[in-house]
Specification:
With about 200 residues, this protein is α+β, with helices and mostly antiparallel strands. It is built from four helices and ten strands, in the order ααβββββααβββββ. It has helices at about 1-20, 25-45, 120-130, 135-145, and strands at about 50-60, 65-70, 80-90, 95-100, 100-105, 150, 155, 165-170, 180-185, 190-199.
Length: about 200
């Protein structure tokens, strides 16, 4: 008898949870995502990349929370990455609330004011590949070949020789007889390899 009471009690709790906290319709999420991407294209007409990178439904309140990435000057030595935050009403897409813009990279700087610098994003890896200690070859390459650009998107390595996650940034110039690539550890923000590649 006790087992039946427990099972019935659990079924009632599950039913209540489903009624009180329904999941947001996929269509609502897709519509909100498309609306925000259009809004960001108007706000940042010079952006190279605009994408929603995270989102979740908040069905009881009728809002969808979204986090978007905006990247400008992508294939340059100093890309700018911004995260934008939105709460969008699924009943009326024109009714949305924005959070403060979060600048991940700005002014060719990374990890400003942080004690530990983790290269979480490719834009940070691009900047670190020519500003960190040990990048003298890249600095010289950029000075000698002002048309040099990083290949984007940058390559992410799940494991670099047992040292952990890493980024591989390749710099290419049409005028140079070679390219140069730099491998940086993501969690240590440390250059571990620099190589020249002949064309």
């Amino acid at each position: 008898m006790r087992k039946e009471v427990v099972v019935i009690g659990l079924l009632i709790v599950i039913t209540l949870l489903l009624v009180l906290f329904p999941r947001t319709d996929t269509k609502d999420y897709t519509n909100a995502k498309n609306f925000i991407q259009e809004h960001l294209r108007a706000k940042y007409p010079d952006a190279d990349v605009i994408e929603v990178i995270n989102g979740e439904g908040v069905a009881p309140t009728g809002y969808v929370s979204l986090k978007a990435r905006v990247t400008r000057q992508y294939a340059t030595p100093c890309p700018e990455r911004i995260h934008e935050y939105y709460n969008v009403s699924v009943a009326n897409m024109q009714n949305f609330v924005t959070g403060a813009s979060e600048y991940i990279t700005r002014g060719c700087k990374i990890c400003t004011g942080e004690t530990t610098c983790i290269l979480a994003f490719e834009e940070e890896a691009i900047i670190a590949s020519h500003t960190d200690p040990g990048t003298d070859q890249v600095v010289q390459y950029l000075q000698n070949y002002p048309d040099a650009k990083p290949n984007v998107p940058v390559t992410f390595l799940a494991d670099y020789n047992g040292q952990g996650e890493a980024w591989n940034v390749t710099w290419v110039s049409q005028k140079a007889p070679f390219s140069i690539y730099v491998t940086l550890l993501k969690n240590d923000n440390k250059v571990v390899e620099t190589n020249l590649i002949g064309k």
